[in-house]
Amino acid sequence: MSLDIPTIAFYLIAIVLVGSALAVVLLRNIVHSALFLAVMFGAAAGAYVLLNAEFIAIVQVLIYAGAVTILVLFAIMLTRNAQSQSSNPFAKQWWLALIICVLLGFGLVYAVGNSAMAVASAFAPVHLATLGADSGTVTRLGQLLYSPFVYSYVLPFEIASVVLLVAIIGAIVIGRED
Amino acid sequence: MLNTPFTYMPTGADWLRILPELIVFGAALLVLLADLFIPNGRKGWLAMVCLLGVIAALIGVGYLLSNGDSQTAFYGMISDDTLALFSDLLILFAVGIGLLYSPGYIERHAVTRIGEYYGLMLLAALGMMLMASATNLMLIFVGLEALSLSLYILCAIELTRFRSQEAGMKYFILSSFASAILLYGMAMLYGSTGTTSLSGVQAFFAPGRHPFLATSGYGPLLLAAMGLLGVGFCFKVSAIPFQAWTPDVYVGAPTSVTAFMSVGTKVAAFVALSRVFLLALGAQSDKWEPVFWIVAILTMLGGNLMAVVQRDVKRLLAYSSIANAGYMLVAIATNTQHAFSGLLIFLATYTVMNVGAFGIVLALERNDGQGTTLDDFAGLAKRRPGVAAAMAIILFALAGVPPSAGFVGKYYVFQAAIVGNHIDLAVIGILTSVLGMYYYLRVIWAMYFTEPRNVSGGAGAIAATTGMAGEDEGEPEPADAASGASVAPVRAGTATLARPVTSRRSANSRTVVATQAPAESAAPPLTLGTTVALTLAVVLTVALGLIPGPIVMLAEQAARLLGQ
Amino acid sequence: MPLSAYLAVSAILFAIGATGVVIRRNPLVMFMSIELMLNAVNLSFIAFAHFLNSVEGWMFVFLVLTVAAAEVVVGLAIIVSIFRTRHNVDVDELNSLKG
Question: C3-93, what's its fold?
Answer without folding.
Answer: Helix Hairpins (1.10.287)
